[in-house]
Amino acid sequence: MLRLTLAALLIATPAHAADMAFFVKNLRSQAVAVELFSRDRKMSWPGDDQVFLIEPNSQKSVPISCSQGENICYGAWVNGNDAISAGVGPDNDQPCDTCCFICVEKTTETIDLVE
User: Fold this and answer.
1) Domain range holding 105?
2) Which residues pair with 65 in a beta bridge?
């Protein structure tokens, strides 16, 4: 009985919060909008229907606080034309094998957005 109680506590314990960053390089000739999405819970960054806007041929560091081990995917699209998109797209509904990362404390993942 004690083992079951301990196992239930381990499962019910929330994941530890982690601070990590994404370094987004926009190598396109157009500005892009970027949003980060959790695949494990209903959460996005920056949130509140906002996006990270990255000007052409520039880069931005995007710090987030996420749950340790959480799957974070990026969606990116040409600002003003979401038909041209990358990653999981603006609605987090596109398949993507290479656009998701695991939340790990004090790490930085790089995202290269190309033409």
Assistant:
1) 15-113
2) 19
Instruction: Give the CATH number, domain containing residue 65.
Output: 2.60.40
Q: Is 4 helix (H, G, I), strand (E, B) or coil?
A: helix
61 neighbors 22 (Cβ within 8 angstroms):
yes
Task: Give the bridge partners for 25, in sequence order.
Answer: 59, 112
Residue partners of 49: CB distance under 8 A and separation at least 6: none
pLDDT of residue 8: 41
Q: What phi, psi does 78 have (nearest 5°)?
A: -65, 130
pLDDT of 64 > 50? The answer is yes
First to last CA, the chain: 59
